[in-house]
Amino acid sequence: MKVTIHIWDLPHRLFHWLLAASVTAAYVTAKVGGALIDWHGRIGIFILGLLVFRIIWGFIGSTHSRFSTFFPTFSRLAAYLKGRWQGIGHNPLGGLSVIALIATLAVQVGTGLFANDDIAFQGPLFDLIDKSFSDKLTGWHNTAFNFLLALVVLHLAAIIFYRWVKKTNLVVPMLTGKKKIPIALAEAVATNHDQRFGAVRFILSLIISSTVVWGVSGGVSQLYLAQSQQQIAQAPSSF
Predict the structure, then answer these.
(1) Of 87, 77, 63, whose CA–CA distance to 197 is shortest?
(2) DSSP string, 168-222
(3) Predicted confidence (pLDDT) per residue in 104-154, tens digit
(4) Which phi and psi (to 5°) does residue 3 adopt?
(5) Which tens digits make up the pLDDT trace of 166-216?
């Protein structure tokens, strides 16, 4: 007998689908290029915000959003491979996939902030380094995408495998937040299951991630420039 439980909180699901849409849009705008390359940069900064939010949420979100519940330790991986692992969130291999995706995206976005295309595009932090280093980071940015593409393909393959071989739908729970599991398993994990995400924690995560996006987008440099101009205007004239 199975019961339906709430497993994925709303912020977790929003992050998942916004990230999927953003990565797709970033890929399309990069391939098309031209006038869309500026949008590629904007989308990259938005992805940065999503990643910062997810990392914070991995520590203060609800139970199954937290890294501590699915981090792929050796003991968890060994138990899973031996068929002894029990859980309702990400299994250890799924957790490994999540960590790998976040790390690869972090490299992808981080290098993109300093990248250039030798034509018209420069990342928002391009001026902080010299051109030769920017060219090197641009190369890493392109290489990281190949790893990202491989991880996305593996992710999609896992979804298909679970749907058709294990008869488990991984997409619907990420849409609704609800999942059907054996009643015995539900009772076993009930004491550690907390779906509440908390409005205060959610707002705090949004504020921090938005601040990072604002700063990277030029907010810090604009604020510094405004302060410098104000100091110049207030300075006494010398004759």
Answers:
(1) 63
(2) --SHHHHHHSEEEEEHHHHHHHGGG------HHHHHHHHHHHHHHHHIIIIIHHH
(3) 999 999 999 999 988 878 999 998 899 999 999 999 999 999 999 999 999
(4) -125, 155
(5) 888 999 999 999 888 878 776 666 555 556 668 899 999 999 999 999 999
